[in-house]
Predict the structure.
Amino acid sequence: MLVGGLVKSSLIDYPKKIAAVVFLQGCNFSCPYCHNPEIVNPVVFKPFSEEEFFSFLKNRINKLDGVVISGGEPTIHKDLYEFIKKIKDMGFLIKLDTNGTNPEILKKLIKDKMLDYIAMDIKAPFDEYETVTRRKVNTDNIKESLNIINRGFADYEFRTTVVKGLLTFDSFVKINDSFKEMKKIKRYYLQKFQKSKHLDESYENRTTFEDEEFLKLEKLFSDTVEFFMVR
């Protein structure tokens, strides 16, 4: 497993839990606003060993509640299941961050009760996915992952990063239309774009929606989402 980064303790990445966050190297998307360019592009960052990670984790038993597995995109790794099982067998809760491109591994992990919480990024409405991710995307896989997670066999949230100009109000109308075809969404978070380091350096000058625009979106999702928040 290519481990590209580690946050040893976090109070914000796993709801109501103290967790370590492990970032796995590599991604099948190239979202321009991504704030982890060194994780997405394996050329610019040397990963540290899986052995180092598990040595750290062994010393955190009974000190941490869980482990957040993020990226990049964790599900591109063929040994993800074994990696998660090893962590789970140590007694930690598991939260998985994913872009939803690999519904088959999601089904297997959920079926085998390997996941306690899932956070799936909804990058855009389906017809805008390739524009936002700058990659060819099989949106049928995205739809399948949404439906698998929405069944609620593991706790979950969906989330979308809001970059003004990349997404519009109409983009969210289309996302809401897709929600209408599903069981009511448990949690949906809109994440304000924050200026940072980005995969596309030109995004340093981008902004997010205004407060009044977010209020309109809150009203838009009022019938399809149980808990909506802008963060």
Observations:
- The helical segments are 37-40, 50-58, 80-88, 103-111, 129-133, 139-150, 169-179, 211-220.
